Amino acid sequence: MSASRPEPGTLMIYQWRKWDGSPHWANEEVYLGSDEWGDWIGQPAGWRSSRPGREFIANSVDVTLIPRSDAGHGADHAVTVHRRHAKAMRIYIDLAWEVQWTDAGGTDPTTGWPILATGIDMDLDVVRVAGQRGTWVDDRDEWAEHSIRYGYPADVMAHLEALALDLETRVRAQVPPFDDATADAWLDRLEALGLDR
Fold this sequence. Notes:
Blueprint: E1 11-17, E2 23-35, E3 38-43, E4 48-51, E5 54-57, E6 62-67, E7 75-82, E8 89-101, E9 115-129, E10 135-138, H1 140-150, H2 154-173, H3 180-192
Parallel strand pairs: 1-9
Antiparallel strand pairs: 1-2, 2-3, 2-4, 3-6, 4-5, 6-7, 7-8, 8-9, 9-10
């Protein structure tokens, strides 16, 4: 279900699930605003991400772009950009399905914050780190395993496999919004809110 966007500064949960509907990562976020690329949310240092059996606390600020989508299934990826990541990670793109805003997401039981954005995690990721390793498509083994376990449709698989390679090329070339300047403006905006715990 598509929904109107919250006001900038709204505390929210971005809830991921797997293809079979089982819960995946739930991220504590704040809505920052939108630009020509889509909507930006941020996770300050000290905020929580959790999934069944696992939890971590963000050690640095990051922002996530939920791209605009004209497709009937919502956006097919989400772009997270880190500042001062402990492992020198700059960009982490989750290949996805049905990434969208919702009015029917309910509330998070831990924080009481509304679940305003949801998406299906589709295993493949595009990663960029500082240094020699650079940019690559990650988690191909999980993609292969889950395609059998969950029975991903062939057309969805073909679309996402092509998208992963396209995103890898654009991230490597630092084409906007995968350049530093685009995300840095949103990271600055997030840090100016002073929401770190």
